[in-house]
Amino acid sequence: MEQTTVSLPLCNSCGRPVKPGERAAKFSCPNCHETLIWRCEKCRKFSRHYKCTNCGFEGP
Ligand SMILES: [Zn+2]
Ligand SMILES: [Zn+2]
Questions:
Q1: For 43, which of 36, 37, 48, 58 could close a Cys bridge (C-beta 3.0–4.6 Å)?
Q2: What residue segments make up the domains of the chain, in order of their start?
């Protein structure tokens, strides 16, 4: 089995790696626009809160 060493993005809500192909959401922080926020499929489904690692902005 071949495995590439691509580091998976981490979900900003639960901290789990977001697998390729997962219906995750990715968007830049609405406050500082500098950090890319990732939310995995589960966190989207449960509308978990995320926190920007750059400015500390919290949002749904
Ligand atoms: Zn998550
Ligand atoms: Zn931010």
A1: 48
A2: 9-60
Q: Kindly give the pairing relationship between strand 58-59 and strand 36-39.
A: unpaired
Instruction: Report CA(44)–ligand 1 centroid distance (Å).
Output: 7
Q: How remote is the CA of residue 27 from the centroid of ligand 1, in Å? A: 14
pTM of the model: 0.80
What letter does residue 41 receive in the DSSP assignment?
H
Q: Are 17 and 10 in contact (CB under 8 A)?
A: yes
Residues 36-53 have pLDDT tens digits of 999 999 999 999 999 999
